[in-house]
Write a structure and sequence with these properties.
- With 399 residues, the protein is an alpha/beta fold.
- The protein has two domains: 172 residues, Flavin prenyltransferase-like (Rossmann fold, 3-Layer(aba) Sandwich); 217 residues, Rossmann fold, CATH 3.40.50.10300.
- It has 14 helices and 19 strands.
- It has an eight-stranded mixed β-sheet with strand order 12-11-8-13-16-17-18-19, with helices on both faces. A five-stranded parallel β-sheet has the order 2-1-3-4-5, with helices on both faces.
- Helix 1 packs parallel to helix 2, helix 4 crosses helix 7 and helix 9 packs across helix 14.
- The chain starts with a strand and ends with a helix.
- It binds cytidine-5'-monophosphate.
- The site of cytidine-5'-monophosphate (C5P) has 12 residues, from helix 12 and strand 16.
Length: 399
């Protein structure tokens, strides 16, 4: 998406550097439009380097491309962070004496502003009247937070943290096409116990499944995330009022949780990596070398959970499976995927090639999406969140 980030002259401009970084890492194309004053706080080279685009404050640069209106016209979202009291007044009056002013007047995209100023200036009736007017015109406002301000004061007026502004921006850019849809997503990897300290496991971090849960919630779904052994920092990405987390360990627990949660679900997504086998015997005590010789581990087959969910699904319910393959080439990848989709009876199958270096524990992914009947429903690559968005696009088309 094309995002314009306007920066006005406040000390919080340093936090906007991190916001721009979050936006570019999230796959967005960001153009920074600072005011002259903003450049006294953070310089032009920083904005150019972090956004990877030329930066100017003036309406007189790049005139041939009609830059003073082109930026606003092309934007999917305009953010102003920090928005000073002065810039709020200018916005309310519709002043256009610099590139940010013309961009704001020329855009029809949503506008998100993050005010930052001293508590007195925020409470001032002029500022409050400006905020009320902007809100009435449909401008979205994030913050300000209550807390420490420049100069040692404290109170309302602190710019919201970059992560919060980023989340608000994402919410404005995501369609609400899953409003009220009940979704269950499994994520992570199962651990099949051998003894109280050891298990058979796999390298799934749960990142793709967590991204699927977060994306669904952002689009309005009610989500249950069945999380198998996911690290706290990864699971933190699923912190959302519409996401309920159920934690499980072994495949049998995952199976119980999924069967229970799927009863009420409209869409079931099985992104977890499930062990196909489990040790038949689970030793009550830790196996030691003193137990004598190399211990044999006899394995029994686990139930195929997604196949069971697919064959028990009620009319209208969609079941989505995953296939992580290590093929020789693309042809073999798709052949295997088609066979798996039929064998498991799932509606959609998300296929990715994995290996020592790819697929697992990484921030990025690349997938093929097979729709009902094995039809090609597209490919997606990039951050796991972007891949999640493409997967939900495909699911929403079928729902
Ligand atoms: O057969 P394979 O493990 O490649 O299939 C992957 C898909 O099947 C994933 O959606 C995974 O969650 C699911 N699966 C399952 N139960 C198993 C093994 C895999 O639901 N025992």
């Amino acid at each position: 998406m094309n995002i314009v980030v306007g920066v006005t002259g406040g000390i919080a401009a340093y936090k906007t550097v991190h916001l721009v970084r979050l936006l570019t890492k999230g796959g967005h194309d960001v153009t920074v439009v600072p005011t002259e004053d903003a450049l006294r706080f953070v310089g032009l080279p920083t904005w150019e380097a972090i956004s990877r685009h030329p930066v100017t404050t003036s309406v007189h640069d790049d005139v041939a491309k009609v830059r003073h209106v082109a930026l606003g016209q092309a934007a999917d979202l305009v953010i102003v962070a920090p928005a000073t009291a002065n810039s709020l007044a200018k916005m309310t009056a519709g002043l256009a004496d610099d590139l940010l002013g013309t961009t704001l007047l020329a855009t029809e995209a949503p506008v998100l502003i993050a005010p930052a100023m001293h508590a007195e200036m925020w409470r001032n009736r002029a500022t409050q009247a400006n905020i009320a007017t902007l809100r009435e015109r449909g401008v979205h406002i994030v913050g300000p937070a209550d807390g420490e301000l420049a100069g040692g004061d404290s109170g309302p007026g602190r710019m919201s943290e970059p992560e919060e502004i980023f989340a608000a921006a994402q919410a404005l850019l995501t369609p609400g096409d899953l409003l009220g849809v009940r979704v269950v997503v499994s994520a992570g990897g199962t651990r099949e116990p051998i003894d109280p300290v050891r298990f058979l496991g796999n390298r799934s971090s749960g990142r793709q499944g967590v991204a699927l849960a977060a994306e669904a919630a952002a689009r309005g779904a009610e989500v249950t995330l069945v999380a198998a052994n996911i690290a706290g920092d990864v699971l933190a990405e699923a912190r959302h009022p519409a996401i309920r987390i159920v934690t499980v360990g072994a495949a049998a627990e995952l199976a119980d949780a999924m069967k229970r949660e799927a009863v009420e679900a409209d869409v079931v997504v099985m992104a977890a990596a499930v062990a196909d086998y489990r040790p038949v015997e689970v030793s009550e005590r830790k196996l030691t070398k003193e137990s004598g010789g190399v211990p044999p581990i006899e394995l029994a087959e686990n139930e195929d959970i997604v196949a069971a969910l697919a064959s028990a699904r009620r009319p209208g319910q969609l079941v989505v499976g995953f296939a992580a393959e290590t093929p020789e080439d693309e042809v073999e990848l798709l052949e295997r995927a088609h066979r798996k989709q039929q064998r498991k009876g799932v509606d959609l199958l998300i296929v990715n090639a994995v290996g020592w270096e790819r697929g697992f524990e990484t921030a990025e992914n690349a997938v093929h999406i097979l729709g009902p009947g094995g039809v090609d429903a597209g490919v997606a690559s990039g951050s796991k969140r972007l891949v999640a968005a493409a997967i939900w696009d495909a699911i929403a088309r079928e729902h």
